[in-house]
Amino acid sequence: MSVSPFVERLREHAASVGALPRTPAPVPEGEQRAQPEQPPAAGLAPGVAPTAAPGVAPNQLAFWQNPIARATINRRITGDPELGPETHFARRHGPAIVAPHALSLRASDAKLELALVEAGSCERLTGLDDDQGRVDFASGRVPEPLRERVRFQLGALEQWQPPEPLGAVVCRSFLHRREDLEAVLDRLAGLLEPGGLLFVEDFVGPARFQWTDAQLQAINRLLARLPQELLTDLSASDGRRKHSVERPDLAERIAATPHEAVRSDEILPLLDERFGRVEVCPYGGAVFHQLFSRVMGNFAGRPDLVGVLMEVDALLTDAGVLPSDYVWGVWRRA
To answer: In this structure, what CATH number is given to the domain that contains residue 156?
Structure first.
């Protein structure tokens, strides 16, 4: 099957910036090519294997668990496919933290929290979460020598008071779950010392996942061109295929997930109203987020195609055709 000149140009561009290996010359029909070795898990922290999160089957991996997708995101944020955003932001902005204590909201993998403490950017860090499972998971990622300095606990932002001056707040996948964004950001501004930093990674795309027409058109045109074997819905048991992405019914979405993407499209302007931007890195997702949803595991043997599709997302975002659905950034309290 011939490949369109547009796809060839995308592949060449992606290879030139390190998003994927250069594609070998096509093999004439009837000949066989030895299967290439799988690429290393670029972009993952040293010693971390590209495995699924707890409770996620390997064949249902999300986009952020694919090593090629992760490496592409790393490159967009840090300039280096092997350098994760957590290390980048800790190194780049950690020295500017103005007070010894930091707060983390919504426990995750503890990477940024550990990076800040290990770099000496803050002396202690408290993690707050209202879910014991996430608290336990994050706590389990903290090495024994740091457990007196990095502690995750059940708690709510509204009741928490810093035991000492607060120099930084880590907000990862937290703000898009809040309806009271103004109150939350005002609370953070009040807790932080002057000059304190707010580290944010979050979904800032359409509220309640009400995908735009342009976004849906791009995703569905790409799905229509992909081989059928890559479209098997891995969340279903009947072998059905995913042929399109649709805008979810708003009432059904609110009923099913009332705390997801509540006012996600307002996060950036509200942050900018209350804090000064230090560094903000949009890294796309208007295409790859929903395109790979429920089918990512089918691409395990197609790192070249993953790289091309990630580059399509980057090109459309960089050209202003589609906004970025995800952002990493740092803001400073005046």
So the answer is: 3.40.50.150
| Percentage, residues of the chain above pLDDT 70 | 82
Is 29 domain-assigned?
Answer: no
- Quote the number of domains for the chain: 1
**Domain presence at residue 33:** no
Residue 132 lies in a domain: yes
- Average per-residue pLDDT for the chain: 86
Q: pLDDT tens, 96-110?
A: 999 999 999 998 899
pTM of the model: 0.83
Mean pLDDT of 232-238: 92
Full 3-state SS string of the chain: CCCCHHHHHHHHHHHHCCCCCCCCCCCCCCCCCCCCCCCCCCCCCCCCCCCCCCCCCHHHCCHHHCHHHHHHHHHHHHCCCCCCHHHHHHHHHHHHCCCCEEEEECCCCCHHHHHHHHCCCCCEEEEEECCHHHHHHHHHCCCHHHCCCEEEEECCCCCCCCCCCEEEEEEECCHHHCCCHHHHHHHHHHHEEEEEEEEEEEECCCHHHCCCHHHHHHHHHHHHHCCHHHCECCCCCCCCECCCCCCCCHHHHHHHCCCCCCCHHHHHHHHHHHCEEEEEEECCCCCHHHHCCCCHHHHCCCHHHHHHHHHHHHHHHHCCCCCCCEEEEEEECC
Domain span at residue 61?
5-19+38-332
Task: Give residue 57's pLDDT.
Answer: 54
